[in-house]
Specification:
With about 350 residues, the chain is α/β, with parallel strands linked by helices. It is built from 13 helices and ten strands.
Length: about 350
């Protein structure tokens, strides 16, 4: 896989065929190559059988490690944090240029898959480039622990980390929450619940292609529902596993976009990908936050697909994107008033639009 990504662009195009252009966006060459190579692999299982689930989770972790590239050189410690019903495994990442800020990170994987190991590479790179310590939390997964357990675990972990900020070497006033996909969803729910409960609000929320709406399917779910890694079948399986039988799709802890009020939430960085089924609902949430007076830095990476933060090989454009996201977080946690002027840089807004 690494050798394939290192090939010249012309050779990659001979493997993938003509560029894919949708809505004026051109699919990134490496993303196109990854999708082409993925067609040779068996389709993922959508079974809740314990053996099938275990195999799918192991496969995701192995693939993520393979795609993660060389790990960023940050110090790590295995720790535990409080969950809703007992301790949860977690990992602390300490960057060399430590700024005293901390990011509580919740991994993606559809609330069904994903782990500390599957998201080790992006957590390392975010720590290195943001200067913030990162605590990656292994919340409990569905369908064994359906809604609201993952939401409760994320909230309990955040509150515990805030309470233990000194122990983790962090400034309690600069503790952010963040995550990708399902983890972006959990981060949004933590911010909402902390506000509503009168608890210490996160200093920022980093929402990377978050799931925000189970009530209504946005157009991008149809446009990119087949052939771009996260498929309609994947989403249906994750949704049924996570929601179980009793979840109210209008509950803000299920669909943050449907919260009656999003005013007073912490500053947000909202990241989307041009070829992602979750693109539109992520951008709708960013727009709703901004319309309600929340400071928002939003960025669409036009050529990327869902899951790009896990593709961090040395030649991958997504590695530079994740490093840039880390830079956005550094700015937001250090000089919040400057971040609207700094991001997006000149020319990026046109590319995103």
């Amino acid at each position: 896989m690494a050798a394939a990504f290192a090939l010249p662009s012309a050779v990659k195009r001979r493997i993938t065929g003509p560029p894919v252009i949708i809505e004026g966006n051109t699919l990134d060459a490496d993303a196109h190559l990854l999708l082409t190579l993925a067609k040779t692999r068996p389709l993922p299982s959508h079974s809740t059988d314990p053996r099938s689930l275990a195999a799918a989770r192991t496969n995701l972790t192995r693939t993520a490690i393979m795609m993660g590239g060389r790990p960023a050189p940050v110090h790590t410690e295995e720790i535990s944090v409080a969950g809703a019903d007992g301790p949860l495994r977690a990992r602390l990442y300490v960057p060399t240029a430590d700024t005293g800020a901390l990011l509580v990170y919740f991994h993606g994987g559809g609330w069904v898959q994903g782990s500390i190991e599957s998201h080790d590479a992006p957590c390392r790179l975010l720590a290195e480039t943001s200067g913030a310590r990162v605590i990656s939390v292994d919340y409990r997964l569905s369908p064994e622990f359906a809604f609201p357990t993952p939401v409760h675990d994320a909230y309990a972990a955040y509150l515990d980390i805030v309470e233990r900020a000194d122990e983790f070497g962090a400034d309690p006033s600069r503790i952010a929450v963040g995550g990708d996909s399902a983890g972006g969803h959990l981060s949004a729910t933590v911010a909402l619940r902390a506000r509503d409960d009168g608890k210490t609000s996160p200093a920022a929320q980093l929402l990377i292609y978050p799931a925000t709406d189970f009530h209504e399917k946005a157009p991008s779910r149809t446009t990119f529902g087949e052939g771009f890694f996260l498929t309609e079948a994947n989403m249906n399986f994750y949704e049924s596993s996570f929601l179980g039988t009793d979840a109210d799709r209008l509950d803000p802890m299920v669909s943050p976009l449907r919260a009656p009020d999003v005013a007073g939430l912490p500053p947000a960085i909202v990241i989307t990908a041009g070829f992602d089924p979750l693109r539109d609902e992520g951008e709708a949430y960013a727009a709703r936050l901004r319309d309600n007076g929340v400071h928002v830095t939003d960025r669409r990476y036009p050529g990327f697909i869902h899951g790009f933060v896990n593709v961090l090989g040395p030649s991958a454009g997504s590695r530079a994107a994740v490093a840039e996201i880390g830079g956005m977080l550094r700015v937001l946690l250090t000089h919040p008033a400057k971040s609207p002027a700094t991001y997006p840089p000149v020319g990026q807004q046109e590319a995103r639009d």
